[in-house]
Amino acid sequence: MKLFFVLNPVAGKGKSIELMSIIKRICEKENVEYMIKLTPRVGGAEDTARWGIENNYKRIIAVGGDGTVNEVVNGIVGSKTVLGVVPAGSGNDFVRSIGDPKEPEQYILDTIHGKVKTIDLGMCNDRYFINMASIGLDTQVAIRTQKTKKYFSGSLAYLVSALLTIFSYKGWDLNIQIDDQAFHAKTLLTAIANGKFYGGGVLPAPDAKLDDGYFDICHVKHMSKEKMFRVLPKYMKGKHRDIKEVQLVKGKEILITSDNPFPLNLDGEVSITNKAHFKLIEKGIDIIVP
Ligand SMILES: Nc1ncnc2c1ncn2[C@@H]1O[C@H](COP(=O)(O)OP(=O)(O)OP(=O)(O)O)[C@@H](O)[C@H]1O
Question: Entry's SUPFAM superfamilies (predicted)?
């Protein structure tokens, strides 16, 4: 089986590029036909993955973080190509829902010999996501971090953005429809989960399963800033189930609209929109389970 590795050279602050020689060594030792291509630019993994399909590769392995995985998914969806992941980003949240963490060498070996499993896929408006979508405070922090990164280094940029976002926070007025249940809510955040984790191990949907035919939706209503500081640590650990403002439900189709634009995150890629229409695509993609 020919393998095509789509490697993002800037993922994980360059961690991924170090894997190139390891991938070569393992593929040669295992006598596997392979090709590695580096992604050329932001958003470039999608086209690189399509190049792999056009050149008859049936297994395409994303080497990078969740952003790279998301781009490869959008490049291969509908093609019957199998997705593999060698985690080499900063968060690597998607693979946390597949199994126990391993050393990169083991991921590469297991990806060569791994089994194929069909899992669900998410769609939002015209984009696909494989792990997690969210709207609200967390996404606003991510958007702000893109700006503060110009002035501060990694974790400090995130901390400054989180504080600025919390102190200017007013909540988002959202019209939400989950299957046939519609409501209006002033919202702190909403996570729409296929996988369990995002943001480097944050656990909004502890019961989410990649292959159960449902999204797990975590809706957190508006609350005071004082309460937010108490609730967010619980949310991060997945211990937020009993909080009054938290609703955890399952669903297949979710429509979120608002008169005011709101921040939207799909597998870590962020944008601003007035409408997010999510659909679960049952058994939408085949992945290699290491
Ligand atoms: N050649 C390149 N130059 C600059 N950016 C690139 C290049 N190739 C890909 N990218 C971009 O790098 C970004 C980060 O990639 P990715 O999310 O995989 O890594 P990460 O942020 O380290 O990990 P994680 O999302 O798991 O925290 C993506 O937005 C991707 O489009």
Answer: NAD kinase/diacylglycerol kinase-like
Q: How far is the CA of 65 from the centre of ligand 1 (A)?
A: 7
* CA pair distance 152, 22, nearest whole angstrom: 33
**Cross-strand bridge partners of residue 7:** 38, 63
43 lines ligand 1 (CB under 6 A): yes
Check whether 283 has a pLDDT greater than 90. Answer: yes
What pLDDT is recorded for position 153? Answer: 81
Amino acid sitting at position 127: R
Ramachandran category for residue 75: left, alpha or beta (phi over 0 → left; psi -120 to 50 → alpha): alpha
Domains, the chain, ranges and CATH? Answer: 3-113 (3.40.50.10330), 132-282 (2.60.200.40)
Ligand 1 neighbourhood includes 40 CB (under 6 angstroms): yes
Residue 176, classified by CB atoms within 10 Å of its CB into exposed (0-12), middle (13-18) or buried (19+), is buried
What is the distance between the alpha carbons of residues 193 and 179, in angstroms, rounded to a whole number? 15
Mutate to test the pocket of ligand 1, among 6, 10, 85 (most ligand atoms within 8 A of CB): 10
Q: Would you give the DSSP letter of residue 125?
A: T
Please state, in angstroms and rounded to a whole number, the distance separating the CA atoms of residues 119 and 107: 19
11-47 pLDDT, tens per residue?
988 888 999 999 999 999 999 999 999 999 999 999 9
pTM to 2 decimals?
0.95
Task: Determine the residue type at 261.
Answer: P
